[in-house]
Design goal:
The protein is mostly helical. Strand 1 and strand 2 form a beta hairpin. The longest helix is centred in the first third of the chain and has 37 residues. A 3-stranded antiparallel sheet has the order 3-5-4. Strands 1-2 form a two-stranded antiparallel ribbon. The chain is elongated, with a radius of gyration of 24 Å.
Length: 190
């Protein structure tokens, strides 16, 4: 009886080891290889390189502050603490934060408070959205152009060149990747 149990345990252990190698090593390596071949720029995290140096991932929002840069949506920008705030539309705290942000953005951009787009006031669900709306990007053109000593029309052209349309022509909204736009802005400014 003990020999039968030992034989079954040994067979089970061999199957466990085989499946661990197949499912835990070979299959992931195969999928990784296919992804690197089919999507060479995206399989490693869509890294953005400037002069051969990685400056960030175009999939994850990065914090930019100061007048020289286009600003992203509000967010934590801490990849270890991603997620929404869990504050609902009737939250007094969320409403107070939105009011403060609206006032700050309007003052920074020199525009009336009622012209500030929603994505300048609220974070995305993850808090790491790398995109802003074209409206928010265009709102920042005057400030960025003035701070960099560039022609506002040239900065506006950069925004338009980095505006991505809806996926498949009808899904989502037009958007501007802030990291890519700021990298292009730095290159244009020299």
């Amino acid at each position: 009886m003990f020999a039968g149990v030992a034989r079954q345990a040994a067979a089970g252990l061999r199957i466990l080891l085989l499946m661990t190698v197949v499912c835990g090593l070979l299959y992931p390596l195969l999928i990784w290889g296919i992804a690197r071949t089919a999507f060479p720029g995206r399989a490693d995290g869509s890294l953005l390189r400037v002069d051969g140096r990685v400056v960030g991932s175009s999939l994850i929002g990065q914090e930019f502050t100061g007048p020289l840069w286009f600003h992203p949506r509000p967010g934590a920008y801490d990849p270890l603490a991603t997620g929404g705030s869990d504050l609902g539309p009737d939250s007094g705290r969320l409403l107070a934060e939105v009011r403060l942000r609206r006032t700050a953005v309007a003052r920074t951009e020199g525009v009336p408070a009622d012209s500030v787009p929603a994505d300048a006031l609220t974070s995305s669900a993850s808090g790491l959205d790398p995109h802003i709306s074209p409206a928010y990007a265009h709102l920042q053109v005057t400030r960025v152009a003035r701070a960099r000593g560039l022609d506002a029309e040239r900065v506006r052209e950069l925004v338009n060149a980095h505006t991505t349309g809806r996926a498949l022509g009808f899904l989502g909204q037009e958007r501007v990747n802030v990291l890519e736009l700021n990298a292009a802005l730095a290159a244009a400014a020299g």
